[in-house]
Amino acid sequence: MSAGLSDTVLLELSVMPALTIHEAAATTGWSPRMLRYVEQLGLVAAPRSAGGYRLYGPAQLARLRSLRTLLDTHDLELGDVGVVLRLRREPELAAALDAWFSAGTVAPSGVTATAAGDAADLPDQDWLAFEQVKHQQLLTSDRQDTA
Q: Where is the HTH merR-type domain (predicted)?
């Protein structure tokens, strides 16, 4: 039985040497700086050579291409995807954000909100006081929850 064309392509892919960061940048359209940032965010991990250089194989290149498609399709930035990854890895961060979003815009005592109760309509000084008290209350409740 002879090897078909697809077998040859798979064989070539499996023995494809890993690319350096500059070669991967040229191949994917990402700059070397952006590839480092992608790795810093934890989105794509590039193994290192014995000399400490990042090496990008077929799996990393495919992941980078799919990341680019994800960003373009959903109008996202790398930082957006990085935050979602952190939320998956850090349950306490997810809980803190949930608490912040659910806190709403309740005016603390001593700060007068408009009839609608919207902090965005407060004068600048009142808004600053409002935000400071709100964040202090959230921090205090978070400390009490963990104690």
A: 18-87
